[in-house]
Amino acid sequence: MSEDNSDIEREARPPFVQPPLKAQKGRGAVSNLQGRYEVLAREDIDDGWSHNSGEADTEADANADENMEADNAPALKTQVIEERAKSILSRNQSPDVPFSVSLNPYRGCEHGCIYCFARPTHSYLGLSPGLDFESKIFAKVNAPELLRHELAKKSHVPEPIALGVNTDAYQPCERGLRLTRRVLEVLHACEHPVVLITKSSLIERDIDLLAEMASKRQTAVAVTLTTLDHTVARTLEPRAAAPARRLRTIRTLTDAGIPVGVSIAPVIPFVTEPDLERVMAAAAEAGAINASYVVLRLPWEVSPLFRQWLEAHFPDRAQRVMNRVRDMRGGKDYDATFGKRMHGEGVWADMIRQRFEKAVARLGMEVRSGRFRALDTSRFRPPSVAPRITPSAITPAAISTSAPTGRRKKTGKVGNPDGQFELF
Fold first, then answer.
1. First and final C-alpha spacing in the chain
2. Which domain holds residue 210?
3. Which residues contact 314 (CB under 8 A, 6 or more apart)?
4. In terms of pTM, does the model score above 0.85?
5. What is the pLDDT of residues 246-283, one digit of tens each?
6. Which one of 73, 121, 213, 335 has the lowest number of neighbouring Cβ atoms within 10 Å?
7. Which residue in 49, 53, 100 sits closest to 422, CA to CA?
8. What is the pLDDT of residue 95?
């Protein structure tokens, strides 16, 4: 073969090819997208060495290789990392959320919801907002002690605490760690009001505490329900309770005397949006007394992760979905402006709002706006003894590769090391 022919062949067959994105069973993200603070960029490519020969593979051979790789790929295991936080209560002044104090016992969430607005917080740790966010979970093991310390302060003014807002307080590891249970025990003993939001049926475990608090107007619960389609839910929220199971949870909590609302968040055009009225009707039938909704939010790395998910699961409508999202976000993937970020703007956002309001009126539900104000703070009793607080540290059993890098301040310390990364 002449040298000229060799050059032509090399040009016709590029050596580096971007492999197609593949969803992993039981995981929401389809990649370990790098965080926005990473210095070096990494990219997976097919350099040809995995092929059986130097010749071009036939389509059948290529498919066989892909299937073999998928079958042999090890399952991504979840790693729970024990952490001792410095503080536990986070405060915000956002005008479009109904609370100003929140508590999150965990960072990262194994539910793996692809749309989770908290995914970018893992970037502060030098980890990926993608698969790392749902497989490397940080558990604040001293959360109950920190809470007692906060409530014992003379300066503490009781107001409802939102529990599990960034990441689900009842995600799978809670079954064994029981951090949320212990936090509730502290709040129950002090008669301090709390509101919980979850997708998990594990909350039924704590009905004994919640029912007594509800009888004194000290608690309320919101169950997130995005769709009634189990097939969509399995890819959208792979490790969260199935839609039918969440409806049963609403009924169980309601029968125990606990006020329950439904959070339809997010509303995703052409994916979950067609289900809006059916979700509300099913939740109302199960006992939900109020409802709220949030249009899909795509801050920071959530945008490329969500677009990857669309290409992997809904390639036929991926472009339509993103076009409609941008129609509601002023031409962008996301607009974080207060007053716009939750419900969007424009014709399509107005249509969703009208559909929601008409369904609320038809079903006799309430808009979930006053549930925090309705809780009673007058019974609060500070704990008698505040436990000694130990210094913040992450256990040696943390990530085995390297310490979190994060964005560093001039002092050389990792930004916001105590982990209270709120996005309000």
1. 65
2. 79-367
3. 271, 321
4. no
5. 999 999 999 999 999 999 999 999 999 999 999 999 99
6. 73
7. 100
8. 87
In this prediction, residue 256 carries a pLDDT of 98
- Beta 89-91 vs 101-103: how paired, if at all? antiparallel
**In 198-317, where does DSSP find H-type helix?**
207-215, 230-236, 243-255, 276-286, 302-313
Pair of tokens at residue 41: 């960029």
Classify burial at 162, counting beta carbons within 10 Å of its beta carbon; exposed 0-12, middle 13-18, buried 19 or more: buried
Q: Which residue has the tokens 């971007």?
A: 18
Would 198 be classed as within a structural domain? Answer: yes
- Chain centre distance of CA 28: 10
Length of the chain measured in residues: 424
Residues 214 and 258 sit within 8 Å (Cβ to Cβ): yes
Query: Which pLDDT score is estimated for 38?
Result: 81
Q: What is the pLDDT of residues 32-74, one digit of tens each?
A: 998 888 877 666 666 666 555 444 454 444 444 444 444 456 7
Q: How many domains does the chain have?
A: 1
The answer to the question of residue 261 being in a domain is: yes
Mean pLDDT (the chain) is 85
Output the pLDDT for position 234. Answer: 96
Distance CA 345, CA 324 (A): 11
Q: Look at residues 164, 82, 175, 163 and name the one whose alpha carbon lies nearest to residue 118.
A: 164
CA-to-CA distance for 204 and 219, rounded, in angstroms?
14
**Rounded Cα distance, 50 and 198, in Å:** 43
Contacts of 329 (CB under 8 A, 6+ apart): 335, 344, 345
* pLDDT of 81 above 60: yes
Q: Tell whether 86 is covered by a domain.
A: yes
Distance of alpha carbon 352 from alpha carbon 147, whole angstroms: 39
How many CB atoms within 10 Å of residue 262?
27
Strand partners, 80: 137
Write out the two tokens for 315. 């390639």
Nearest 5°: the CA angle 307, 309, 315 is 80
Q: Which of 27-41, 157-171, 382-396 has the lowest mean pLDDT?
A: 382-396
Token representation of residue 74: 């090890």
399-411 pLDDT, tens digit each: 333 333 334 333 3
CB 33 within 8 A of CB 308: yes
The residue behind tokens 């909704």 is 293
What CATH number should be reported for the domain holding residue 98?
A: 3.80.30.30
